[in-house]
TrEMBL record:
This is Phosphatidylethanolamine-binding protein. The lineage of its organism: Eukaryota, Fungi, Fungi incertae sedis, Mucoromycota, Glomeromycotina. PANTHER family: PHOSPHATIDYLETHANOLAMINE-BINDING PROTEIN, PHOSPHATIDYLETHANOLAMINE-BINDING PROTEIN 4. It comes from the Eukaryota. CDD domains: PEBP_euk. InterPro entries: PEBP, PEBP-like_sf, PEBP_euk.
Length: 371
């Protein structure tokens, strides 16, 4: 896909060939101005995000010779890379037309598509307008260069912070054995995106969060979304158990469709409700990839107390993204038990410590006993 700066669009609109040659001469680009115009017009895509009032304003030409020369080089390089991309597209078309379906053909096509993607990124990554758009949040994830920049940004800082907190607070290994994320899972309550591991109030989380699942694959894949609390007391076994707050299966996702509304709700959302007398609870959200892009079936009456590892093993699910937040009891939890969960609120605490020096009346035993 060929992206254009506003400067080049303006030049093309005015059909000023002489002005364009100040940026890149046709003989250097090795194709005619008409071909250049057709290529850019046919393959251009507008950024799909809402356009803000702030627009890219390129520096004027002829002011800084170094800038003009650099821009000329960028567009020369871009033209050469798109010529290679066109050759790769023809190779893929020939392979799909001539060669019968086989594993070898699929591998060759996959390799060529990977080369095509890398060239598309390299062709656009140095464009000043592309850089400005990304910095100002004008990102179209269907365009390879923006997808590349978004993934690179995620892996540079947010992923590092997530892995640090998810490890320090023992979400790994208490909930999941290992974690190699490929999806940037974010969520927000109302308008605020929640950082991993922060404390929230129960009143903030009464309604289900808005999920932001940034993935980087073009083809649609099916996923399962879960939200669990691994810190609910299990008094019978004197340990902890995992309670499920939310479960949605068969969610189709790709790079341009991060919406979870296409999934099937198995366990409707219930708000976090850390019982009185317990320590903080780690409410964990995770996105799990389903095997072979196949739908799974889970009974609607699934028990809300279930081990996550056993669930993943049973349905052969793979962890792709996760995050979490923490809560402790406050007075709003009592209202959640009464009006939403509709059962009596439990209260936990430690057994009173037995003082061996007190008698059955609670008085201190005498120091000496008369035999």
């Amino acid at each position: 896909m060929f992206l254009l700066s506003h400067r080049v669009q303006r030049i093309i609109t005015k059909n000023s060939f002489n002005t364009l040659t100040r940026i890149c001469k046709p003989q250097e680009l090795q194709f005619s101005f008409v071909s250049f115009r057709q290529l850019t017009t046919n393959q251009q895509k507008k950024v799909s995000q809402k356009v803000s009032e702030k627009q890219y304003k390129p520096p004027a030409l002829g002011v800084n010779p170094a800038y003009d020369e650099a821009l000329k080089y960028i567009y020369e390089d871009k033209a050469l890379k798109y010529a290679k991309i066109k050759d790769i597209e023809e190779q893929i078309s020939n392979i799909l037309t001539i060669i019968a379906p086989s594993n070898q053909r699929d591998q060759e096509v996959t390799h060529l598509k990977k080369m095509q993607y890398e060239l598309q990124v390299l062709a656009e990554i140095n464009d000043p307008e592309v850089r400005w758009n990304f910095k100002n949040g004008k990102i179209d994830m269907s365009i390879p260069v923006y997808r590349h920049l978004r993934e690179k940004h995620w892996k540079k800082e947010p992923l590092y912070k997530l892995m640090q907190r998810i490890t320090q607070m023992y979400v790994i290994p208490d909930v999941f054995p290992t974690f190699e994320p490929t999806i940037d899972l974010e969520f927000k309550f109302k308008n605020d995106i929640i950082e991993p591991g922060v404390f929230l109030f129960p009143a903030q989380t009464r309604k289900e969060p808005t999920m932001i699942l940034t993935n980087f694959h073009e083809e649609k894949r099916l996923y399962t979304l879960i939200m669990v609390d691994p810190d609910m007391p299990d008094t019978l076994n004197k340990t902890y158990q995992t309670e499920w707050n939310w479960l949605i299966i068969n969610i189709p996702l790709n790079v341009t469709n991060p919406d979870i509304s296409g999934g099937e709700v198995i366990l409707p959302y219930i708000p976090p409700h850390p019982p009185k007398g317990t320590k903080y609870h780690r409410y964990t959200l995770a996105i799990l990839e389903q095997p072979n892009n196949q739908k799974i079936e889970i009974p609607k009456n699934m028990d809300r107390v279930k081990n996550v590892r056993e669930f993943m093993s049973e349905y052969n699910l793979t962890l792709r993204g996760a995050s979490f937040f923490r809560e402790v009891w406050d007075k709003d939890v009592s209202d959640i038990y009464t009006n939403i969960l509709v059962f009596s609120e439990p209260q936990y605490g430690r057994h009173p410590k037995v003082d061996q020096y007190l008698d059955e009346t609670g008085l201190k035993q005498p120091k000496y006993t008369n035999f």
